Amino acid sequence: MGMYRLPSHRRRAAEEHPGINLVPMVDSIFNVIFFLLMTTTFISIFEIKSPIPFVSSEKVNEEKDKLNLLIEIKSAEIILKDAASDSVLKTFPKDLSNPEQALSSLHQHLVGIKKESPKEDTIIINPDAVIDYEYIVKVMDSVRELEKTDESIYFKDEQGVSVKSETLFSNIIFGNLTE
């Protein structure tokens, strides 16, 4: 009869290679990633489209007559300023009984300014923090749109052709959004 041999303990130890159990490590890393994703605040990044600067030997056409109009919307008045010199051009007091009167007066004054500088299309709006959103939208509408009753405004394009202006100041920039 053949003898049955028990496997050697040394031989079994050499065959088994104890490995590192990665399951708890992967589990803990997954929990850390989940925690970081849940506690992270995501910010929105705004892109400002601007042309790439380039070097040119041509003479730069600088617009010296460019307006820097600034509208400050206060609780009691609307102030129209020249942003470059910070000088007040005109003040439009808000009448509590007729709040649309200040907007109408502002609009008529801006139509006169647009007649003098018909190619200008940029204006800066600086509302106070206490101003209602609806009132800011009304100011934007009176600044941006020409009414049907307004006199037509014409300007000459690059080819010298007279073109009718469809808007007053269509490029609106907000000035104090961080306050």
Short description:
The protein is of the alpha/beta class and 179 residues long. 30% of the residues lie in helices and 19% in strands.
Question: Overview of this structure, please?
Answer:
- This protein has a 5-stranded mixed β-sheet with strand order 3-2-1-4-7, covered by helices on one side. Strands 5-6 form a two-stranded antiparallel sheet.
- The chain is an alpha/beta fold.
- 30% of the residues lie in helices and 19% in strands.
- Helix 3 runs parallel beside helix 4.
Give the topology string: H per helix, E per strand. HHEEEHEHEEE
Please state the average pLDDT score.
Answer: 77
The description of the largest β-sheet is: 5 strands, mixed
The whole-angstrom Rg is 35 Å
Protein structure class: alpha/beta
Helices and strands in order, then pairings?
Blueprint: H1 9-15, H2 23-39, E1 69-73, E2 77-82, E3 87-93, H3 100-116, E4 122-127, H4 133-144, E5 154-156, E6 162-164, E7 171-174
Parallel strand pairs: 1-4, 4-7
Antiparallel strand pairs: 1-2, 2-3, 5-6
Helix pairs in contact: 3-4
